[in-house]
Amino acid sequence: MFYREAGIFKTSYAADQALFRIPLDRLFVIGVVVAAIVVVPLISNEYWLGSIMIPVLILSIAALGLNILTGYCGQVSLGTGAFMAAGAYMAYKIATNFTWMPIPLVIVLGGLCAASIGLAFGLPSLRIKGFYLAVTTLAAQFFLLWLFQKVPWFVNNSASGVPTAPPRSVFGELVTGAEATPEARYLFVLAFTVVLAVIAGNLVRGRIGRTWMAIRDMDIAAELIGIRPLHTKLSAFAISSFYCGVSGALWSFCYINTVESSAFDIFRSFMILFMVIVGGLGSVLGSFLGAFFIFLLPIALNNVVTTFGLPIATETISHIEFMAFGGLIVFFLIVEPHGLARLWQIAKEKLRLWPFPY
Amino acid sequence: MAEAENVRAEPSAQTRVFGEPVLTLENIELGFGGVKAIDNVSFEVRKGEVLAIIGPNGAGKSSMLNCINGFYKPQSGSITFKGRKLPGMDPHFAAANGVARTFQNIALFRGMSTLDNLMTGRVLKMNRNFLWQALYWGPAQREEIEHRAYVEKVIDFLEIQAIRRTPVGRLPYGLQKRVELGRALAMEPEILLLDEPMAGMNVEEKQDMSRFVLEVNEEFGTTIVLIEHDMGVVMDISDRVVVLDYGRKIADGTPDEVRANQHVIDAYLGVAHD
Description:
The structure holds two protein chains of two kinds. By secondary structure, chain A is mainly α. Chain A has helices at residues 13-16, 23-43, 46-72, 80-97, 103-122, 130-150, 182-205, 207-217, 219-225, 229-255, 266-279, 284-307, 314-335, 339-353, and strands at 169-170, 173-174. The longest helix of chain A has 27 residues, at 46-72. Chain B starts with a helix and ends in a 5-residue tail after the last helix.
């Protein structure tokens, strides 16, 4: 009816290569972003903003990063948590050593530090593939967390080993640390999310994205076309780690307000991997869908139980959560490896023809 | 162009004259463990010709192509290309200097659309840096548009407009072969290596493919090296034929010479051992 893909004609390649080729898609996305900026802070209470929207957006950034590496470039990584930790710790070091530095720059620099670490751990990818590469990234996960825990330099010799994130402001408004209002932190995180999502969209539709996908789909053919496998894989590792690093820095500065390695353990890595698998490998939209789905599912389960007043113990709920998680992962791996994003696409295709079968 | 086609129709295509060799292979030897895949083979590829490499299964034809574009490094021998005499080609050097190829079993990027597959062929010609690409604005966008325009020409040439946005994994075999040719053409190759471009095709598809190969050769002056098992096609479209058997070169000449060569007949039909 209103949404249609047919009858939209392009007269220039620029229009045909746009990020959203269908005008209604573009309007819809702009609408979502505007709603996220204006409506969400108005209607949400402190709990929704501070404990749901902020972490979900931050995890979306990490999922985007992992999707670039795993979904687009085909390199499996279990080190997401470690790269997030690298971003968080380095951003903390930079923020405390250069107190004059504006906080967005601090976060970006934290991301860049994570990128250079990711680059180093991406080096084995030239020789190893698949499971074996996953194991080497697992080494990154354990080694980096161990390093951040054991070397007091990273936390400025703080006695507890868990320093609080320094308060910093943008345009005179506190955006990090425990004193900042949830609205300010939310908008700060949202700004990063939108910019990084647009950049990811641009990268994957351009030259660099095509080289990633070429390596993922057929590395030999890609090499014979002149794509350098090492450059390509390392660029994916670096950019992916940058996203993870920014996400980790935001996690520490805007969500948990402390810099601690337990926030970035192996479970975090798995959680983000699940987001990418459930959301859709090789899809920017899928990263968001997956992040929202995986993060909101336990909360939804909890709410169902409390609203219906079901007599279930809290431990049982958390066990059901785990089972539902496992079941979903298996379901998606078997039924729809391309995840929610693909289901969305199929739904659109079906609706386009509805009520006719084809 | 009509004239050229007439010349081709003649059984003896002696009238087509070719320039200097663009690629010279000398004493190429390649072995895998105890197996000699290529045994002291030398030949040259001349500018603008259609050269066919034929031979029974396992004769070393695909290995030969793999040596030419640098996927395999020969153990000895040399390849002279672009005035450089190399012990073996480097894939990146070959690709950057206009050697493109297709594969025996299709090696397309299955998850990408036809358009993206062809655009990937332009990778080496695009050089905007990462930051511009992240913005997708200004020079990066101009570059994308410029290369898109070229890719669209290839799409028109191969008549695959309708499948532009289809992921290639969903295409039927014949079209995949055509897209793969398109990806190679998008590289604007000087030398096009085709590994069994007509394998598994029906007559119409073979005719289409032959037409594309000849048109590429005539319109863009691209030198073509192809491996093919359909002797009818080989004898019709090639200017020169190199015959390999058990890794050795047993004949090299025009289709007519090769057809009459006793070694070739023996290799294909077998020879009585008494």
